[in-house]
């Protein structure tokens, strides 16, 4: 008679034996399979993004370009001429000077007198329980003369004179929201390469998702929506005191498959100045990820599954390869994922006209695991954040 204490009892139920290596292998297959599904989803979405035609750019509907700026006088000296040189037939430029002490007020007053299309607003006191940028944007949007508003940042520059026209073209078909793409200037060094990789990755995620009828965020460096959409939804009400989120939380709350358009082409992007120190980049990413806590549960779940499956694909894959645990199947799984990821990056650079050195993508793909473990954990546990 075999008792529960028999050393041979496991052999009576071979299918129930605990095999740690097998569990890890099948866990890898699950994580890698999820990754393949996600990247196929992104690739299909990128394929669906179409380019605007030149004859689509004839809309006379007015658009207001709005920029919130604090101590940005040097950037404004470059940005304002670029904005005033846009070829859109009916637009205005609104600069909201947010309590600057670098001479921006005097500079803007002088510029406003020179150009009829330029309007400057000045903030001297910030209301309680209102983040600075959201308050500045709120004033700018309320002051807009046109029904459509186009947002960018003071440290950005449009890629062409037809930027505003192309973005305005995104309102066709009755769209209330237009998502654009913004990249960072190329500089020497690995940090800049990683920043541009992460920016392309973010673009792939939100642009492809929107193309697949699942919009969830946008970036304030290149974003447009209708003034009525903002006013009817009480602007940033409910998260007006949150640092950040003036772009992605607003889009997460109000974008749908029926009201959101995309404009992704070289003439319609903006280029920004990247962080040049790891410390500044770290703070920026903590702030961005922290804001994600305010996304809808659906959006948070989708993003969490994507990033966790990315992490476990590489960790479990590396373990299986090191221990020769079904290493050939693991290698094929990693290769398949890498091919689809690689194809997605090639396609988004082609659609946007952004140059990116693909040779290092496998290395930063792996490094992203370490980066996200640390920055994601920090953003999850931190209670308060600041711009500094």
Question: Short description, anyone?
Answer:
This protein is an alpha/beta fold and 388 residues long. It has helices at residues 20-48, 73-84, 104-114, 132-143, 163-169, 190-211, 227-232, 248-254, 278-291, 297-322, 327-352, 361-381; strands at 63-69, 91-98, 118-123, 148-153, 156-158, 177-179, 182-184, 223-226, 260-262, 270-272.
Explain this structure to me?
This protein is an alpha/beta fold. 50% of the residues lie in helices and 12% in strands. The protein has a seven-stranded mixed beta sheet, sandwiched between helices. The chain has a three-stranded mixed beta sheet with strand order 5-10-7. Helix 9 crosses helix 12, helix 10 packs across helix 11 and helix 10 crosses helix 12. It is elongated, with a radius of gyration of 24 Å.
**Number of beta-strand segments:** 10
Number of helices: 12
Mean pLDDT: 90
Counting structural domains, the number is 2
| Fold-level CATH name of the largest domain | Spore Coat Polysaccharide Biosynthesis Protein SpsA, Chain A
Name the CATH superfamily assignment of the largest domain: Spore Coat Polysaccharide Biosynthesis Protein SpsA, Chain A
Q: Main sheet, how many strands, which sense, barrel?
A: 7 strands, mixed
The fraction of residues in strands falls at 5-15%
Which structural class do the helices and strands define?
Answer: alpha/beta
Question: Which residues form runs of ≥5 with pLDDT under 50?
Answer: 1-17
């Amino acid at each position: 008679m075999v008792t529960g204490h028999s050393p041979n009892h496991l052999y009576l139920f071979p299918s129930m034996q605990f095999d740690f290596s097998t569990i890890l292998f099948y866990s890898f297959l699950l994580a890698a399979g999820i990754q393949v599904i996600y990247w196929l989803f992104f690739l299909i979405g990128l394929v669906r993004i179409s380019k605007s035609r030149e004859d689509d750019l004839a809309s006379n509907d007015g658009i207001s370009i709005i920029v919130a700026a604090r101590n940005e006088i040097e950037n404004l000296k470059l940005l304002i001429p670029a904005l005033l040189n846009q070829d859109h037939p009916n637009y205005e430029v609104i600069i909201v000077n947010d309590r600057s002490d670098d001479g921006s007020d005097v500079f803007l007053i002088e510029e406003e007198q020179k150009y009829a299309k330029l309007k400057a607003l000045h903030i001297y006191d910030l209301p309680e329980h209102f983040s600075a940028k959201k308050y500045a944007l709120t004033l700018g949007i309320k002051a807009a003369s046109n029904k459509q508003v186009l947002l960018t940042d003071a440290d950005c520059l449009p890629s062409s004179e037809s930027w505003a026209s192309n973005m305005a073209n995104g309102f066709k078909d009755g769209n209330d929201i237009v998502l654009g793409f913004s990249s960072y200037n190329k500089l020497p060094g690995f940090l800049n390469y990683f920043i541009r990789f992460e920016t392309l990755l973010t673009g792939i995620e939100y642009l492809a998702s929107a193309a697949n009828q699942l919009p969830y965020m946008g970036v304030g460096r290149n974003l447009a929506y209708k003034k009525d959409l903002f006013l009817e939804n009480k602007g940033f009400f409910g998260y007006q005191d949150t640092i950040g989120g003036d772009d992605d939380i607003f889009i997460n709350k109000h974008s749908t498959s029926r009201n959101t358009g995309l404009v992704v082409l070289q003439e319609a992007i903006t280029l920004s100045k990247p962080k040049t120190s790891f410390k500044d980049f770290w703070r920026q990413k903590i702030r961005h990820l922290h804001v994600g806590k305010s996304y809808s549960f659906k959006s948070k779940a989708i993003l969490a599954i994507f990033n966790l499956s990315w992490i476990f694909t590489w960790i479990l894959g590396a373990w299986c390869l090191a221990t020769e645990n079904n290493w050939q199947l693991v290698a094929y799984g990693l290769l398949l994922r890498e091919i689809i990821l690689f194809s997605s990056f090639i396609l988004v650079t082609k659609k946007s006209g952004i140059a990116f050195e693909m040779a290092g993508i496998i290395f930063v793909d792996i490094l992203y695991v370490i980066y996200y473990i640390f920055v994601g954990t920090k953003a999850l546990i931190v209670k308060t954040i600041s711009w500094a």
